[in-house]
Amino acid sequence: MSIYKRKETWWIQFTAPDGRRIQQTAGTQLKQEAQELHDQLKAEAWRVKNLGDKPRYTWQEAVVRWLTEQGHKKSIVDDKMHLRWLNGHLNGKHLDEINKTVIDGIKRAKQQTGVTNATVNRVLAVMRSILNRAKNDWEWLDSTPSVRLLPEPKRRLRWLTQDEVAKLFRELPQHLEAMARFALATGLRESNVTHLQWSQLDMQRRCAWIHADQAKAEKAIGVPLNDEALAVIRQQLGKHGTHVFTYQGEPVTRANNHAWRKALVRSGISDFRWHDLRHTWASWHVQNGTPLHILKELGGWADLTMVLRYAHLSSKHLEEYAGNAKTETNLLQ
User: pTM, whole model, 2 decimals?
Assistant: First the structure.
């Protein structure tokens, strides 16, 4: 059957002259519209096979291939969420039909859901990535429309003082306190703490390591363990055979959870995420004199760009140059 109905929507199915099986939704509840689209697609497939026309690919075909190639991405779960939303606007469209007008309509529709500009930009970025891949790698498109992102306000660096950290520790359950202490001692990201295994530790050499496939920059990280980090690790000995941090005998999968958020409320700390523990660690380092190039290595950043966010927290390295701009008149006389 060339067209058939699934619930209220008509679907198209046929075998192209080159042997490809075409099956997709017609995106309509009207049989006549579905038949017209079927005939159009079948004619296009014939021209590709017999006249050498360039084949046209749908958004769904591009998404399937992109997901196959990008399945390793750490953000793939969020990407799939954005793609499900995009499906309501791009389902059934050919890639060459996605022009600036369509993109602007998608942008407005997402803004009208009440989300931030940053969330809108994540959706647009996924769409742009797929279109660029279709043009540059797969040669499915000759050109792609410009995808202009919305302006995002620069977020203030959020970090805690020693007193605030002490208040937070008093409110955290024991297993989360241990993980927070370890994060503040090492600067490791949440997933690197929750997934840390005994095989990644050498307490004699006072170090741990994060494998390349666990690191955001996809580069292995060596992690020196200070006295605080080692003390936390020793408290976890014997609790689990493979994983360091556990709760009720099972490895912890998430630290940024309900118990964490309740502890923040009780301690009077607002606008603070688990990831801000890493910002706190970096801020303390800079304030205590750690050079930025050393902090870059400690934090496993790929380049200095991210580290420069903390540079303003200390001016000690600039003190010897502060007197280079001065008037000749001594105002103190």
Answer: 0.62
